[in-house]
Amino acid sequence: MLSAKQYKSGVKPIWCPGCGHFAVLNAITKAFAALEQAPEDAVLVSGIGCSSRLPAYINSYGFHGVHGRALPVAAGLKVARPDLNVIAMGGDGDGFSIGGNHFLHASRRNVDIVYIVMDNEVYGMTKGQASPTTPASWEHSKLTPHGPEVRPFQPCAIALASGASFIARGYSGDPNGLAHMLFEAVQHPGFAFIQVLSQCPTFCPEQKQWKETVHLEEVCTDDPVKAAAFLHGDDGLSKGIFYRQPRPTWPVEHPDTQPTNLRKSFEI
Amino acid sequence: MLSAKQYKSGVKPIWCPGCGHFAVLNAITKAFAALEQAPEDAVLVSGIGCSSRLPAYINSYGFHGVHGRALPVAAGLKVARPDLNVIAMGGDGDGFSIGGNHFLHASRRNVDIVYIVMDNEVYGMTKGQASPTTPASWEHSKLTPHGPEVRPFQPCAIALASGASFIARGYSGDPNGLAHMLFEAVQHPGFAFIQVLSQCPTFCPEQKQWKETVHLEEVCTDDPVKAAAFLHGDDGLSKGIFYRQPRPTWPVEHPDTQPTNLRKSFEI
Amino acid sequence: MNNLTIAMVGSGGTGVVTAGEMLLRAAAKLGLYGVLRKTFGPQIRGGESAAIVRLGSEIVTNLSGSVDLLLVLDWSNFQRFADEIPVTESTILIEDKAAGKYPANLPQPQQTLTLDFLGLAKTLGSGHSNLALLGYVTGWLGCTAEITELAIRHRLQKHPQETIELAITVALGGTQLQLEQPIPLKPVLPLPTHASGVNNEQNLWVANGNQLTGLGALEAGIRFVAAYPITPASDVLEWIAGEIESVGGHLVQAEDELAAVNMAIGAGFGGVPAMTATSGPGMALMSEAMGLAVASETPLVVVDVMRGGPSTGIPTKNEQSDFNLAVYGLHGDAPHVVLSSLSISDCHFTAGWAAEIASERQSLVIVLSDQFLGQSSQIMPPTASTGFSANTEQAILAQGEAGEPAPYFRYLDTDSGISPLALPGQPDGMFTADGLEHNAAAIPSPKAADHQQQLAKRLRKLDSLVESPHWAEVHGQGSLLLICWGSLYQVSLEAQTQLRAKGIDISVMGIRLLSPLPLEKIKQAMGQARQTLVIEQNQQGQFAHYLGSFDSQGLGPDQLSFHQYCRPGPALFSPVEIVAQVEKLIDTGMSSC
Amino acid sequence: MNNLTIAMVGSGGTGVVTAGEMLLRAAAKLGLYGVLRKTFGPQIRGGESAAIVRLGSEIVTNLSGSVDLLLVLDWSNFQRFADEIPVTESTILIEDKAAGKYPANLPQPQQTLTLDFLGLAKTLGSGHSNLALLGYVTGWLGCTAEITELAIRHRLQKHPQETIELAITVALGGTQLQLEQPIPLKPVLPLPTHASGVNNEQNLWVANGNQLTGLGALEAGIRFVAAYPITPASDVLEWIAGEIESVGGHLVQAEDELAAVNMAIGAGFGGVPAMTATSGPGMALMSEAMGLAVASETPLVVVDVMRGGPSTGIPTKNEQSDFNLAVYGLHGDAPHVVLSSLSISDCHFTAGWAAEIASERQSLVIVLSDQFLGQSSQIMPPTASTGFSANTEQAILAQGEAGEPAPYFRYLDTDSGISPLALPGQPDGMFTADGLEHNAAAIPSPKAADHQQQLAKRLRKLDSLVESPHWAEVHGQGSLLLICWGSLYQVSLEAQTQLRAKGIDISVMGIRLLSPLPLEKIKQAMGQARQTLVIEQNQQGQFAHYLGSFDSQGLGPDQLSFHQYCRPGPALFSPVEIVAQVEKLIDTGMSSC
Ligand SMILES: Cc1ncc(C[n+]2csc(CCOP(=O)(O)OP(=O)(O)O)c2C)c(N)n1
Ligand SMILES: Cc1ncc(C[n+]2csc(CCOP(=O)(O)OP(=O)(O)O)c2C)c(N)n1
Ligand code: SF4
Ligand code: SF4
Ligand SMILES: [Mg+2]
Ligand SMILES: [Mg+2]
After folding, report:
1. I want to staple C270 with a disulfide (CB 3.0 to 4.6 A). Which of A81, C19, C331, D520 is the partner?
2. Per-residue pLDDT tens for D497-519?
């Protein structure tokens, strides 16, 4: 049995002081300790971004892929190696902008992986451009000087509409709550999605307010209609496990599959 | 004023006899006639698939792009040329599988275009593989011999969660109803999405049943919570305009923008 | 003439392609060899279509470029096949009474016979003139009723019993008709001795290259395949989908090619040999992730069944124009392996080799197949087991040797360039694979020394591949060396035979290992020849440019000098076309692209 | 020595990069020329960073590779900059008292001065030792207080007044310190005559290549830009975002590069000149759609600001390793244009030319810039107006001429290869643009004749580009020809000057038109030189291979023969490095890659 600390790899994070991603790192180590996770049996898969640097900081296997593709790498790995605990992760840009399609299809495919999006409503690594979750009026990026002027992306509502079977929102200001969610997510069979409000003090200092505005909602349901009604009215700052409805995971095993002679079908 | 027929280009469709896409073609020409559309001011933009062949059959401008990218081509065109009536279209594979990310982001960006997806729950052009909307147990593709075993994609619920401001479902068995929806969609300011149940008799002969099972639902609302509750409980075979809630389109014009000297900022 | 080309053309769902498939199988049962090429108009169903069947008493691997016997059920849109089915004065034509008007601008063939296949079918209670035609041809070839019947049963096995019986009846009606109104041409094939019965002795196969690519991959140990459908690669994936579970693997239909290639990378990282198959547009989308496989040193096989380009291009026809993308299409310095399949049956071998290389060198291997190889069916002897294996035995070496975890350098700079690879689950090998530049310990690093070390290592680990005996197939000894790759190899061999008949000896080299290029071996062969001609099926002479790019480098005396002939698709290369180029070169010493 | 390189190194948010920016601006106000290169550790904020400022009395376009004056506020992680900031015995070092321990494995510099910048700042009520350092250096350079103040005010313009005033106080404190504890080296620059005051006469610019790419594009008429952020291309997009609305255009932030490139294609189809900018990983994703632009003949400009590859590679450093992807990275035969920017200021020119070519030839134009050009700021005279225009005047010609709609052939096979283009809104020009192969009337066609016609047309329409006077910059007349492209051109020119000082004359060719390659012009120059050396910053010698690939083709007497020198990033090429290669070549007649 390892302590939470022993799940840290010792590689020094490149993150800015105060970055919310530290809390996510800590929540993962705590959840791993609680799960008694064998380090060599866990694989953390990420895309590109500040958040996506996380795998190297954990004492386990990791795959730091390309921008937006954490989910397919994770799904391929899990299907090929069902014995592993595969956790995909990344940022809001990685997951909801360039990676949006995989998010939809991972939600509906329901491979048994966890997906953590560290949502700071900004592209941290490329120095502060708007992401899909950035407020429409946020004028701090030179790329969108009037603000993105686009309705923010609603990750949990989209996860639900796409068929995710476990949907939660955590907050970097509450790493224990997050560790608990993660503990539950790992044990949930199927695709478990956790959006983490993870502040970026460097480009979004206003996110310090989250301390006051994020609020716990005990609304967990297994009814998609109820969950939809809640999530479509939600202010985006509630935290909690919102939806949980286990359904068959993919791949479905076909026990009647017989070893066949591959060459048979060519014979005349 | 042109008649519906005059909106046909004369190029012979490659479609199979009985293909639902013929009805969509007819609905477009009817809607154009009703809209008194100047042919040269309309552009039909598509991806790749049987459905995506449609633009060439209409007497207007067309852009037959690559698989899954009709929406960005259409959005770029409309932003650059707001004077045009831009209609994007394609199949369920094109729009919901490879093009899924653009669907999400077009829905939230709300550029003033129409998007018609001819949904036959199959990849017609590549000879009958499962698409995202194929029923989980459909076993007719060699690529997924046990069926896709994945929960079907729910286009309207996803459009709603992504922020589409006009959401409707039509049926190729009812081209007049479809023409009416399209008429409304063109006039709707912002991104208007129409899913069309468009049968593929070649690969999904079972869709003939739609004649019996598709049913009209008069549930049109401007309340996303209501729409979400309806769409998350929906059987996928209801038709009608489900949601309609105009909101500012993109790009937002900034009337105070002054012509500037581009070179000014370099001076020391 | 020990071979014979039969083309059947129809339209509006006349089923000539089905008849072609049955004909090929009947021929196989007769002990003949042959190739079947299907070709379609743009419609998905019910459009015009054609089946070209070339039969021979010895192995037939490609088409001849001409047609001996043309059977037409419908003349409308015949011109669509003008590129593929040339009608000359020597063609023998048999047309259905209901086929419509003979096309105005076509030369009159040697002999024409108009028969009432449709009427015959109708008399027998069916609308399928294609089956009457089939029986007519199989009868003429000498097939017994039993053979024709077996071929029909096989093709229609999923249909109701009733349908099958009626089909047989109609076909045998056609056979009967042949006795009454024979084809004015004798089948010139020296039929195998058992021609009077079913060939049970010789265990022949009917297979296309796409299926054999699948077989090669699975036999070598590929156990994860990610798929996104695309013509003409889909049937690689479809064949595998039907078989992979039975060997304990999985195929996932992905949402797009970006997902497909990254899924395969994920599986490969997990130590499960993985592959995806696609065509040009899909491989273009995979470019970024293929670079990730290179940088993270994750084994990955990508099969590109080439079609006409650029862009959507001509999806159902042959071309070899993805060479540039395959060899050069990654950003950064990204050494990887590119192979080409040299025949329908070689798809089996090359896919197996690709799987082995990817695993053994922890590298990206692209296999270039093409639409002809992939989608043409061939009668062939069963392909031998390739013996290739993608088993990842190179997993970490020293593990536990020191009694306690040794420090693990995932990207160790070894002599071979191949570093010890740990797989998830191994307690001593934990690391984070990375597409960011890194040092030997897999820690991200932008340092020049680390970058150069890792770049050099990734280049070096492929070096010794050029020593592999599989680098090419070389055939013959002539003063002219013909270099080609992909489906042009078999066509070139036939050209070689035709040239020999004219007293001209050439050697033919089909290159299987396109990158890294076995330059020394090629130079050696070129040194032995007086002249070299490089041929390929694309507009710009992509391979020839590539080969030429290795010139000047050494500034040594052995500069590469060669002629080239290239042209794009969609028309297939024919042996005659190659013969003409070789003769032109010999005559004038000149050649053009 | 008429130039001087100053490096400032800090860590933990010491603000040396800000100081570097102020220093460059102060120098500009003084009438000096210079270049600023910023470099960072992997951290997003608060990590170690360095600013390298090279100043001169004449135009300075690149770095020298050495450092004359090293100013260090923090020694921790200094080794990160080892590749870029070499410390030698001749370095003059000034370190802050609080900088920490001198790194163990560094040579001792010529002279070391330890000063208390932090103490000084603190005394003045600030923690910003970087500003004290700045004032120290500007004072030493001879800047008046006014100049230092102006530079600070410009950089901090968005900060509160209070902050600005304090910054000025601290900086002037540093200037004072310089009088008391002077740098043991005189600024050797022949200062301009107005050195005593602010340079108001000479209207200099401070700009980086990315901004100038934006300027060139907008001035030439680009009015639609689709953006997805990526280092080091983001600031092309960010600069344009701030300006494009004022000229009536739009920039859209797309969801990914696939969307970005397709949006630009949509706008281009609408007749609005369109562009996107990205770096290697993003361009890899754009490959498929770039092929669509080629096949549908839609004007499109893609700027690739290259960084270290493969895969995520080294995102913040320079390399020229996307050449292969740019030239060869499309599937099918897909002729397009590839340009390279030859200096920071040339980014302006080349972007303008790209916009004009794309529009005039209805083609894809890729511009290869690189991280050095893109992100280094330079003091320069204002770049001249390029005169390029992307106005789509080639829209359909004969429209209405016949009094009634003429039949419109969108893809007409013209002599020039350029077909008349109609834009949506024109009643007589309706067509459907297509990535499927098509005939001249834009109707899909898989026919060989149509395919060959369209392929040939698309190739031919680029032919005459090689006649453009802009194909390259060629400088000097020597028996050795140095060929390069991108940011290596300016470095080569400096090497040329250094060689001339040693009595060696070389000519330098910086190729702007990489594809189609102006082969004849290059051959001519090579013919005039005794030897040719091709240099580039990548592992595999990508350009050299490409150049070599045009050999052997004609089999004529004019075979290309050249030497090459290449190596990857991240370290920049220095003039001295090139000089050494040229000398080695001259000495031994040999060179290696
Ligand atoms: C294909 C590609 N496009 C763009 C980039 C540049 N890029 C790197 S990280 C990033 C966004 C990061 O934002 P996010 O995922 O929210 O992570 P954060 O840094 O905010 O944690 C982008 C656009 C890239 N590396 N690759
Ligand atoms: C990048 C790419 N991948 C795959 C394909 C192959 N492809 C062509 S159409 C198609 C699917 C068509 O299905 P859908 O969009 O539903 O249209 P339908 O034919 O059913 O109308 C696919 C996968 C392609 N052309 N390009
Ligand atoms: S930029 Fe923002 S997201 Fe990135 S490390 Fe800094 S605080 Fe964290
Ligand atoms: S295959 Fe299906 S979708 Fe395609 S044309 Fe035929 S019926 Fe229509
Ligand atoms: Mg983010
Ligand atoms: Mg479909």
Report:
1. A81
2. 999 999 999 999 999 999 999 99
